[in-house]
Amino acid sequence: MRILCCVKRVPAPGAKINVTADGLAVDAAHLGFTTSPHEECGVEEAVQIAEREGGEVTVLTLGPTEAAEQLRYAASVGAHRGVLIQTDGSAWDPERTARALTSAIQSLEADGGVFDLILFGNESADSGGFQVGVRVCHALGRPIVNGIKGIEIEGSGVRARREIDGGFEVYELDLPAALGVKEGINLPRYPTMRGRLASKKLEITTLELDAGAGDQALVRLHRPTETVSQTVILGDGPDAAPAAVDVLEELGVL
Amino acid sequence: MLLVVLEHDRGTLGEPAREALTFGRTLAAKMGVEMHGAVIGACAAGPGPAAEEAGAHGAARVYTVEHGVLSDFGPEAWGESIAQLVSVLGPRAVLACGSERGNEVMAQAAARLDWPFVANCTDIAPPAGTGGQWTMTRIQWGGSLLEDATLAAAGTALLTCGLHTVASAPVEPAPAAPPETQAVPVDLDAELARTVVKDRVVLEAGVTLPTAPVVVGGGRGVGSAEGFAPLEELAGLLGGRVGCSRAVTNNGWRPHSDQVGQTGTRIAPEIYIASGISGAIQHWVGAMGSKHILAINIDPEANMVVKADWAVIGDLHQVIPAMNAEIRRRRDRP
Ligand SMILES: Cc1cc2nc3c(=O)[nH]c(=O)nc-3n(C[C@H](O)[C@H](O)[C@H](O)COP(=O)(O)OP(=O)(O)OC[C@H]3O[C@@H](n4cnc5c(N)ncnc54)[C@H](O)[C@@H]3O)c2cc1C
Ligand SMILES: Nc1ncnc2c1ncn2[C@@H]1O[C@H](COP(=O)(O)O)[C@@H](O)[C@H]1O
What we know:
The structure holds two protein chains of two kinds.
Chain A: E1 2-7, E2 9-12, E3 32-35, H1 37-53, E4 56-63, H2 68-76, E5 81-86, H3 94-112, E6 117-121, H4 132-140, E7 144-154, E8 157-164, E9 167-174, E10 177-181, H5 193-200, E11 204-207, E12 216-222, E13 232-236, H6 241-251
Parallel strand pairs in A: 1-4, 1-6, 4-5, 5-11, 6-10, 7-10
Antiparallel strand pairs in A: 2-3, 7-8, 8-9
Chain B: E1 2-5, E2 8-9, E3 12-13, H1 15-31, E4 35-40, H2 48-56, E5 61-65, H3 75-89, E6 93-98, H4 100-113, E7 117-125, E8 133-140, E9 145-152, E10 157-162, E11 180-183, E12 199-202, E13 214-218, H5 229-237, E14 241-244, H6 246-250, E15 271-275, H7 281-287, E16 292-297, H8 303-307, E17 310-313, H9 316-332
Parallel strand pairs in B: 1-4, 1-6, 4-5, 5-11, 6-10, 7-10, 13-14, 13-15, 15-16, 16-17
Antiparallel strand pairs in B: 2-3, 7-8, 8-9
Helix pairs in contact in B: 3-4, 5-9
């Protein structure tokens, strides 16, 4: 099996998200970076499938030079190849991103053969455009279903589960196919020492591709207005339990 | 005309459809156009009931699309149907609700039309005059951050409104007659059946995390899977459910179905008892729909404490068992 997983590098803010002075990005000066959570599960899923079925996992990202860190992290948990479409780090609109990913995938497939399975996240954690995977797949002529929380490879096809209210839907796609996965599909492993060492040696293929901007443009990021509540401190330690239970009684939930 | 895609399950309109119509009414008024609805796919009882409800929520006319490939939900077949409706009807904008299905089918339509699609808007202003552009505010980071954006006015604007941006409401007074319905033929390739739902599995219903009246949340401060026993007990005493943070699911202490937050569940209980949770922004967006919050934390500066209505400062391993004992004591009182 040839499996591809598309991941995005995003900052990991804590209690608050701050925006840069020009309003065009999250102020990440004091922040770490991570892989979007759905996509981190996508990498884990790809590695598990390759372990079961045999095969190779390629991870593709579009971002600044530093996004190589996310490719190395993926390698430290079992991915075999990393491909970086290098940008200047500015936010790309979904059409532009999708066009660049599509050309990268086309050239990777021309060199190494078709990917049996392509995994995207259901949505990216930061901009959340809910469309890049769908656009790429339409351009490639490949089927895609989003919201997937379970994958089983069965012969030359894939069975995928999507959660809905009160149960789940089942989809059956012939390979090659693509899926947009959600966190919870698996529990991503932590890198081992050996994995970390191996990831340092990962050879990253760097591509420079650009398709020009789409029609949607970012003007400014801002925080939603929040109502500040005055916290009533009920007390310290177990002695505060009666006061806490009073609150439950007042709310009528007891 | 503003075309609203009506999300339904085999003919029963869902809350996302009512929200999209409620949001769409305001937008259509700003655009100075009529609002029409579209019901794509088979309806068990025919399209009548869905059309009538759409009318009650402001749709002046309802288009129905039926085809063998549309026997059940399928993102590609729905997306292609929307793209063909756009070509036939030429609406100025298409709006759906930014539910999981809504965003997916609009992305499919956008890919097929090769047009932009702006997901999860909270506010939309149509172009002022000719040659202008759409301006909108949309959700980033699952709601922790907002983006002001522009969209070039050429072509039909493809948009979704963020889930629960508005509370759905029928028009008042109720329209005198149901809306006119019109069947629109579509030409769908049999190949599109490849992504249609094959099967459904119904799981047992109970108190679910999104609907629980009380959620007892535990974070890294709980320390272990076993540490959740007193939280389970408290949730049981209150007829609620246990929730948790991503630190907990990442450690394998609880299943992901218990996770509250941006990549987990959004909760809306009467009270959220958040213990040993720092209140990171990605957790907060899942918890902020709670009517009241009681935080239990050793750190009085924790974001969860600052944002809560009430807080107990202390070790959750002592505070929660003491609350359980107090609840039992009061219940045993004659
Ligand atoms: C893109 C993205 C998406 C994310 N999505 C989610 C999401 O959906 N949900 C989510 O929860 N997180 C999410 N996160 C992770 C989030 O940023 C935080 O890392 C996580 O919420 C922290 O969990 P926590 O509060 O349990 O742990 P910590 O931040 O470590 O906090 C532990 C808290 O417990 C307190 N404590 C410790 N011991 C005790 C004790 N004995 N008694 C009482 N209090 C104690 C501490 O004072 C502290 O406040 C996401 C992150 C990213 C980057
Ligand atoms: N810059 C990127 N690099 C690689 N993959 C991406 C990028 N942006 C988006 N994707 C993929 O497309 C999915 C949907 O993204 P979005 O449309 O932004 O919500 C993500 O979960 C990723 O799998």
